[in-house]
Specification:
By secondary structure, the chain is mainly beta. Helix content is 6%, strand content 39%. It has one helix and eight strands; from the N terminus they run αββββββββ. The chain has a five-stranded antiparallel β-sheet with strand order 6-5-4-7-8, covered by helices on one side. Strands 2-1-3 form a three-stranded antiparallel β-sheet, with helices on one face. It starts with 20 loop residues before the first helix and ends with a strand.
């Protein structure tokens, strides 16, 4: 018997490519990493081959996992089986302490209690046997 159409599914697993594979591998190990330019020191995500600021070579460095809510919205309708059981949930832009801005979900917080400027911390949620995704919760 096939699973019910109403049965919740996990969040969609990432589909790594050559540029994002190191990032998703680290996330799967419970580490958040960002790219840092070896020339000018600029930090960036999502991953690119070169520094967005000066085209210098980039390296991967560990992020602290801390960040600040730059902006957010509360999702109150989503028909996807991966998300509708989570409603209402918070989609947020989080400024990592290293600089890059990340789109993510905030968890472990009442959506009505989320505020711009709120300090948050990364946590990892396993979505399949070989993949996890980074989410954020109040620090
Ligand atoms: Zn640079």
């Amino acid at each position: 018997m096939s699973p019910s159409k109403s049965e919740p599914k996990p969040r969609p697993a990432p589909i790594p490519d050559a540029e994002t594979e190191p990032y998703w591998q680290a996330v799967n190990e419970g580490r958040l990493i960002v790219q840092r330019c070896t020339v000018c020191g600029n930090s960036q995500l999502y991953p690119r081959w070169r520094c967005l600021r000066c085209r210098g070579e980039v390296e991967w460095v560990d992020a602290s996992g801390g960040g600040t809510v730059y902006s957010f919205t509360v999702i109150r309708q989503n028909f996807s089986r991966s998300f509708r059981h989570l409603i209402p949930y918070v989609v947020a832009l989080v400024d990592l302490d290293e600089g890059p801005r990340l789109m993510t979900n905030l968890v472990g917080v009442d959506p009505d209690a989320v505020e711009i400027g709120m300090r948050v911390r990364v946590k990892f949620e396993r979505v399949s046997e070989e993949a996890s995704v980074p989410l954020f919760e109040p620090a």
